[in-house]
């Protein structure tokens, strides 16, 4: 009878036992017995993560009963896994073996923040990227991270894409590949179309929002993307990834690696092709790339060589469409010329050497070279020949020698070329005299040489007085830029308090061909020097939670257009930003959350006002005071073993205190006439007040399903905060809410290590929206008006991938 009662009681308690929450805890130490603080502890294929405290203790709490694989990693030590059966609180200690070689992570550690740093950041692993990597450009793989808005000219994420973080566009986002600058030295933008399918060769990314830590290349005024490409894999492998989707989108990727040969060498390679017709008419893309890397691992050093390249041919979809067209013919493309294309190739060569000089001292150095060349071709209607340095076409009567026809305009086709070289060195020296003290000295010296030249390749008239051939070069100018920086960084752990200091000096020299006055040009030089200090404090409330605060100063030089269309007397000032960050982070095993507040205070921010300077150039103008303030949330909750919830949210306000807009009359007879409009406390363009993302993910055995959502609030298309006669806000991008469904299935079969099926349905509710646009004002013969244009994004569409891993 007692046995029967026990059985009944056990049966009644089974559901509650299944829901019972347990924990896995333990200590992480090295073979010498020293505790390893800051080790990463996670459950394999689960969302539970933790870190070890100053005594090496970790805890993964609120775990349902079941079988788990605990994975522990620490820089410079071999990763270790243990299988743990959980039906009560469990203890699992780890003793990590120090590697007999240097880890690849040392290459980028100088430009990254550590786990408890007083800055705002997000780490994305290769597994995070692989979930959504189906051939769309890299910005689309970052779309679910805080404060991010992505855009696509072609409408479906293949071709020219853009990214904004905290409202700052790509020219204000510092991007490095293995610590080497990727931003174009002159325009300061990053063009991921030049490196298609880069994500397939990326191991991890750290996104630092705000000014962040000192890094190499252009100043970070919105964020930094620190990208690390392929790292060491111990086992040989091969992968074949194929994607087909809407708008005849194809991706074919093959990659392979040797694994570690004789415990010393490894080689990896990838070859990719991506093609798409685009959502917008004729907005096609034909993209190709490869990536090859080889490494030597010694006991105290590592030598790695990366060679990679990308080529793109993209039909232009740069003009956008009107608001009315968004409703009637949203896939419309105003370009009809057959070869209205952008054509570019970019080759990258990187050499890295890292040396463990002693247990306390690690040196890292790199050499790099990038060669880019290409052009975009466009048809131009009714162009003044004098603009292209072509004499007017005069047709005479052979009999009388009288002028019959005189042409000073013509339809034509032109090519705008860019041929550039970018090369230099980066370096860092990390000194760790004690477990609680770390000092890093780093920096870089880079040089850029750019050739800009433009050609007329066809004109309406086959013969224009012998003025030029069909490759008539009408503009030719060169630019040179050098960029030197050096920084020192100190991190000191005082009991529960971490003190961080970072000082950077940067020197920029730029030589360019630009305006001297309204009608003449000459080679000019400019030199700028910047000092960028950063300080931060982090206080550990518990082993799993901390609060932090930091203040960082950033300075940024004007871009090419600002320099070329001005002279020394009219050139805009450099921009200055003071970034204040403060927040709270906790990592409780099944629940991780980061809450962050920021205040980005600009001095002399550069914006478009329409004003012509004294030499007739329409460069951006400095506005004395502007700011961005906001709150960010980044959270993940593993509700049960198979079901997780991830969410981000940003609530912000971005304002320009005062500025004046200028609109000049474009009628030749009224040259110099203009209108002005004064504004105060207006919204900074492309800065939504609210951005949110959400993901519900459920896995069962080998299958998974996720609902992925993104909301972006209303955005102003310009800085005027314009309203119509009824007080309604005009010239805005409407808010949009987009939902995607992601289905995955993975199985081991037919001797293949993994066969993966990934089906992504984007915009499942068929929302008609635009993620980007622009506006302008005009004054013609004293008739004033404004216009706006938009870039429509794809309605419901899909991507289906079949992947094989051997």
TrEMBL record:
Transmembrane segments: none
Domain TonB-dependent receptor-like beta-barrel: 328-764
Family matches, as Pfam families: CarbopepD_reg_2, Plug, TonB_dep_Rec_b-barrel
Signal peptide coordinates: 1-20
GO cellular component: cell outer membrane
Residue ranges constituting the TonB-dependent receptor plug domain according to the UniProt record: 117-223
An example Gene Ontology molecular-function term: siderophore uptake transmembrane transporter activity
Main location: membrane
Keyword terms of this UniProt record: Cell outer membrane, Ion transport, Iron, Iron transport, Membrane, Signal, TonB box, Transmembrane, Transmembrane beta strand, Transport
Protein topology in the membrane: Multi-pass membrane protein
Subcellular location, record wording: Cell outer membrane
UniProt cross-references to InterPro entries, sorted A to Z: Beta-barrel_TonB, Beta-barrel_TonB_sf, CarboxyPept-like_regulatory, Plug_dom, Plug_dom_sf, TonB-dep_rcpt-like
Family listed: Belongs to the TonB-dependent receptor family.
Protein's name in the database: Iron complex outermembrane recepter protein
Organism field: Pedobacter xixiisoli
């Amino acid at each position: 009878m007692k046995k029967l009662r026990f059985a009944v009681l056990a049966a009644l308690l089974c559901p509650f036992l299944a829901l019972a929450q347990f924990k896995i805890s333990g200590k992480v130490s090295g073979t010498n017995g020293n505790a390893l603080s800051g080790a990463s502890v996670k459950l394999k294929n689960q969302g539970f993560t933790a870190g070890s405290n100053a005594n090496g203790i970790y805890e993964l709490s609120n775990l349902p009963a079941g079988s788990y694989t605990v994975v522990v990693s620490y820089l410079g030590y071999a990763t270790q896994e243990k299988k743990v059966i959980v039906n009560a609180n469990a203890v699992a200690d780890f003793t990590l073996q120090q590697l007999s070689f240097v880890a690849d992570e040392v290459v980028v550690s100088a430009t990254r923040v550590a786990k408890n740093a007083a800055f705002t950041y997000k780490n994305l692993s290769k597994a995070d990227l692989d979930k959504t990597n189906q051939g769309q450009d890299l910005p689309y793989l970052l779309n679910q991270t805080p404060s991010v808005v992505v855009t696509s000219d072609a409408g479906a994420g293949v071709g020219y894409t853009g990214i904004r973080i905290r409202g700052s566009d790509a020219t204000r986002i510092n991007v490095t590949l293995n610590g080497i600058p990727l931003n174009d030295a002159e325009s300061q933008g990053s063009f991921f179309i030049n490196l298609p399918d880069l994500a397939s060769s990326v191991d991890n990314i750290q996104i630092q929002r705000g000014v962040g830590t000192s890094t190499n290349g252009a100043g970070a005024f919105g964020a930094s993307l620190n990208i690390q490409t392929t790292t060491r894999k111990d086992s040989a492998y091969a992968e074949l990834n194929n994607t087909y989707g809407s708008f005849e989108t194809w991706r074919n990727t093959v990659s392979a690696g040797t694994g570690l040969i004789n415990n010393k060498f490894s080689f990896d390679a990838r070859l990719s092709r991506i093609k798409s017709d685009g959502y917008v008419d004729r907005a096609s893309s034909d993209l190709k790339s490869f990536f090859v890397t080889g490494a030597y691992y010694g006991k105290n050093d590592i030598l790695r060589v990366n060679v990679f390249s990308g080529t793109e041919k993209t039909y232009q979809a740069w003009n956008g469409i009107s608001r009315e067209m968004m409703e009637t013919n949203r896939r419309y493309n105003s370009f009809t010329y057959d070869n209205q294309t952008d054509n570019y190739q970019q080759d990258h060569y990187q050499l890295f050497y890292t040396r463990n000089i002693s247990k306390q001292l690690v040196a890292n150095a790199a050499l790099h070279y990038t060669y880019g060349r290409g052009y975009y071709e466009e048809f131009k209607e009714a162009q003044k020949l004098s603009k292209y340095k072509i004499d007017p076409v005069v047709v005479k009567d052979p009999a009388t020698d009288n002028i019959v026809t005189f042409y000073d305009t013509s339809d034509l086709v032109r090519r705008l070329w860019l041929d550039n070289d970018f090369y230099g060195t980066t370096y860092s020296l990390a000194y760790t005299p004690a477990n609680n003290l770390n000092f890093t000295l780093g920096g870089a010296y880079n040089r850029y040489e750019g050739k800009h030249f433009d050609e007329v390749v066809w004109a309406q008239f086959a013969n224009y007085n012998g003025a030029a051939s069909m490759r008539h070069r009408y503009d030719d100018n060169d630019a040179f830029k050098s960029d030197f920086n050096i920084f020192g960084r100190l991190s000191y752990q005082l009991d529960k308090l971490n003190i961080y200091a970072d000082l950077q000096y940067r020197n920029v020299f730029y030589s360019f061909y630009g305006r001297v006055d309204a009608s003449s040009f000459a080679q000019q030089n400019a030199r700028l020097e910047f000092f960028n200090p950063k300080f931060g404090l982090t206080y550990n409330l518990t082993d799993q939670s901390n609060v932090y605060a930091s203040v960082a100063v950033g300075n940024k030089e004007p871009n090419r257009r600002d320099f070329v269309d001005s002279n020394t007397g009219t050139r805009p000032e450099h921009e200055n930003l003071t970034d204040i960050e403060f927040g709270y982070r906790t990592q409780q095993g099944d629940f991780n959350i980061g809450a962050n507040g920021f205040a980005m205070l600009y001095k002399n921010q550069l914006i478009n006002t329409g004003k012509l300077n004294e030499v007739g150039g329409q460069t951006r103008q400095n506005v004395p005071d502007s700011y961005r303030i906001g709150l960010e949330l980044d959270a993940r909750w593993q509700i049960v073993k198979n079901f997780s919830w991830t969410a981000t949210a940003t609530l912000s306000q971005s304002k320009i205190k005062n500025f004046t807009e200028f609109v000049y009359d474009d009628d030749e007879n009224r040259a110099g006439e203009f209108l002005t409009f004064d504004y105060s406390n207006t919204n900074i363009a492309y800065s939504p007040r609210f951005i949110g993302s959400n993901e519900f993910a459920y896995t069962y055995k080998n299958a998974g399903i996720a609902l992925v959502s993104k909301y972006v609030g209303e955005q102003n298309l310009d800085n005027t905060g314009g309203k119509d006669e009824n007080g309604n806000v005009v010239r805005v991008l409407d808010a949009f809410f987009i939902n995607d469904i992601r289905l995955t299935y993975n199985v081991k079969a037919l001797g293949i290590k993994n066969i993966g099926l990934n089906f992504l349905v984007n915009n499942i509710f068929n929302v008609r929206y635009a993620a980007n646009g622009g506006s302008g004002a005009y004054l013609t013969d004293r008739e004033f008006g404004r216009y706006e244009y938009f870039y429509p994004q794809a309605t419901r569409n899909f991507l289906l991938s079949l992947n094989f891993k051997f």
